[in-house]
Design goal:
single chain, alpha+beta, 2 domains, two-stranded antiparallel ribbon, 9 strands, 26% helix, 25% strand
Length: 209
């Protein structure tokens, strides 16, 4: 969509994707947050929640320190800085081959169907993935359940695990870990829930090979 004052944006489920901000779209976002007593979240490197003045929003305790926007103009200032940073990150990730031209992640599928199961991994990717996810799960109180390591013709060695939160055992997530084939880059770890809003996007729990 394009507003009369030059904003470019689109809606996807509960998100607004903005490619160009304007005073009008900032005012709309500000009013929505205030009238619904919620706060504004953005993706990118700066994920601090933005609380707008007049909204009785309860910021989750696990969230990072919040920012307060006193009016639509101050909200617009914060969002503009984040949008500039986001565009810079997006261009870098496209050049790096992490996302496509539409911003979609280029990553292994959530499930290993069609890939060759691996008992041993001489590349060391699986061991590094296991160690890193183990450290992360210990900090968050999660339990690493089933692990499957496989060889993908496109992605190389892929380590996957189902992780179960201590306090919410029904909300299982899938950790997908890999290294870009043919490189010595660091690991990439993607986290996604098994159950998605669209049933077609949901995946079944892993089963041992």
């Amino acid at each position: 969509m394009r507003s009369a004052d030059g904003a470019d944006f689109s809606f996807a489920r509960d998100k607004i994707r903005v490619t160009r901000l304007s005073p009008g779209i900032c005012q709309i976002i500000f009013d929505i947050a205030r009238n619904t007593n919620t706060y504004v979240n953005t993706e990118g490197s700066d994920t601090r929640p933005i609380q707008v003045a007049g909204a009785a929003a309860e910021i989750p305790p696990e969230s990072s320190k919040k920012i307060v926007a006193s009016d639509a103009s101050s909200l617009c200032f914060t969002l503009t800085r984040r949008l500039v940073a986001w565009n810079r990150e997006e261009r870098r990730e496209m050049a790096y081959g992490m996302i496509d031209s539409k911003g979609a992640l280029l990553e292994p599928p959530a499930s290993p169907q069609g890939e060759v199961p691996l008992v041993a991994d001489p590349t060391g990717v699986a061991a590094q993935c296991a160690a890193q996810v183990k450290r992360m799960s210990e900090m968050t109180g999660e339990r690493v359940a089933t692990v499957v390591v496989s060889q993908s013709p496109k992605w190389g060695v892929v380590w996957r695990a189902d992780v179960i939160p201590k306090d919410y055992p029904d909300y299982v997530s899938r950790e997908i870990c890999w290294r870009r084939p043919g490189t010595k880059d660091g690991l990439t770890i993607e986290d996604r829930p098994l159950q998605m809003f669209k049933a077609a996007d949901s995946v079944a729990p892993l089963t041992p090979p």
